[in-house]
Design goal:
Length: 303
Amino acid sequence: MNPRFIRFLDESRHRCNDALSRFLGEPDSGHHCFDDLGRLFEASHYALSIGGKRIRPTLVYASANAINGEVDDLALDSAAVAVEMIHTYSLVHDDLPAMDDDDLRRGSPSCHKAYGEPCAILVGDGLQSRAFEVLAEAPGLSTGQQVAMIKTLAAASGPRGMVGGQAIDTAASNTRMDLPQLQTMHSLKTGALIRAALALGGIAANANAAQLSALDNYGSDIGLAFQVVDDILDVEGSTATLGKTQGKDQHDHKPTYVALMGLSGAKAEAHRLLDSAVAKLDSFQESADELRELARFIVMRDH
């Protein structure tokens, strides 16, 4: 992999990690219930800090770079943090016994295993609320940009986006889906937040309508590719490498690309989506090289 891109990945991950800690903060000192609030903040920091590739924040940074416009660094950090807080809240809730009932997340105990179910539910609630507060407070943006970013993230994470996809997934055990149904589920559950990350970076960098459309089309492809690869890794990966329980989709009889297309068919589909995604970036020329490398990284990853 391109050494320059690896450096960009590392820098983006460290930048986001620093911003996450800074933007979440700690409860106000001297509060009468400081210990109780302190446990909530401790669990929230735990959920945010137990690893992760930070793909979505990196997409925020890379899409802004592709537009190549003037953008405030703190505004971009705010967008990256907001997207990652929404993503992390979804993982905390997804691991709960009422949902996927997974004891592991990124190789560590899931939030509800470390802090209990009531606290984990509140961690997810708090991260979701804080994400929108961060965007509302973002510096260096016009009111129009802030409203557009808040609306974009809310739509992507709500019932017509990520939550809607999760609802379909929850009802999908022991059912068989055809390819359009499977793509619909994952374009909502996984793809909506990926497309939102790209849009937030583009909005912060003053992208025009044509540029935002190209980013969205690219995001549609890599969002599906991400899930196809997840399904492949659920079969070929190991619990130690994945950082979560391997083979769980098969165990829970969930519809997957591997179940529908076979392992070789799923791999071919991932590469088809990769080629399609890269082609959607032709209008950006070299300014979108980080996005092109990110698409390849998503398809070639081992966890």
